[in-house]
Amino acid sequence: MDPIAAERRHRAFLATAQLRYAWQFRQRGCAGVDDPVAVDVPPGWYGPLERLFEQVEQVLPAAERGGFRWRRLRSRQGVLEVAYDGVRESVSPLVATARETAAVTCERCGRPGARREVAGSHAVSCRRYYLDRLLSRHPGGETGVRQWWATPQPGLGGRSPAAVVQNGAPPEVLIEQALRLAMPATPRLNGAHRQRLQGVWPVLSEAFGDGLRSLRLAEFDPARGPGATLIGLMAGEADSPAQAAAVNRLARNGFSDLRLRLVGQRDLARPARASDPWSCMLAVEASVTIPRHQPSLPPFAR
Ligand SMILES: [Zn+2]
Fold first, then answer.
1. E strands along 59-150, which residues?
2. pLDDT value of residue 300
3. Burial of 71 (0-12, 13-18, 19+ CB in 10 A)
């Protein structure tokens, strides 16, 4: 959708909600200061939010509406943020449900989706929207993308991606191609980088034990400043408490500049199908191994 049409649709969504549920959108902040409700949500989430407004109207009788208003409704990195004034116990489960629904609803079209990363930015996407987000990082720019859509491929039975996508969601092979095209340059590590990064091994071995099979570094460009993606290849699935603990350990040991991503080794064969396709493809195509032990060098090379 073009930006003007999207803006018009957003205004229509907001105007309708403000008209129908005026009391939820009171523009009154603390101490009478004018403080409009901040609404910045993508079109795919209009449905879940309209349901939320309607349900809040149902659970709060007119006598209990004083002081209630939405303060902020917006999407941040694929997560629906909801803040409101006026504590109402009956509202919080409704907000929780809206957030859970948004987490599996494509931000662009409202069809089922998953929260997926593209170069550090997260959004809940269906397969088609995810493909478009990946293609926006095509190294050939808009011309490259147009060519890609129009070029027939033997792997697609001689059809072009455009023809294939007309008949439904993009197949895995197209997502995989777009992932490959969108990959950043593979990092080059000098001796000092490598030596520092080897310090990550003992920290993460303590967190994951033998579950951690190898470590790779991606999205690292010293010329652009600090920050890089650290990919842990795991024998099995890592649970989120273990991951959170590992992130804390890294920070305590001076590695807070590294974004830790865990990838199951089995997923490497089919990145488009993994829960984190971006990190998976980084591991396959655009990363370097961090060796576990410092190689023993002859004395003159030290
Ligand atoms: Zn979609």
1. 69-76, 79-85, 114-118, 121-125
2. 57
3. middle
How many Å lie between the centroid of ligand 1 and the Cα of residue 20? 27
Other CB atoms within 10 A of residue 70 CB? 22
C-alpha 80 to ligand 1 mean position (Å):
16
CA distance 207 to 242: 7
Domains, the chain = 3-102 (no CATH), 120-182 (no CATH), 191-289 (3.30.460)
Strand partners, 118: 121
Give the Å distance between the CA of 112 and the centre of ligand 1: 7
**Per-chain residues with Cβ under 5 A from ion ligand 1:** 106, 108-109, 111, 126, 129
Q: Output the 3-class SS for 223-270.
A: HHCCCEEEEEEECCCCCHHHHHHHHHHHHHCCCCCEEEEEEEHHHHHC
The string of pLDDT tens digits covering residues 146-180 is: 999 999 999 999 999 999 999 889 999 999 999 99
Helices (H) and strands (E) in the chain, counts: 11, 9
Which stretches of the chain score pLDDT less than 50?
Answer: 302
**Do 256 and 226 touch, CB atoms closer than 8 A?**
no
Give the integer Cα–Cα distance in Å for 196 and 73.
42
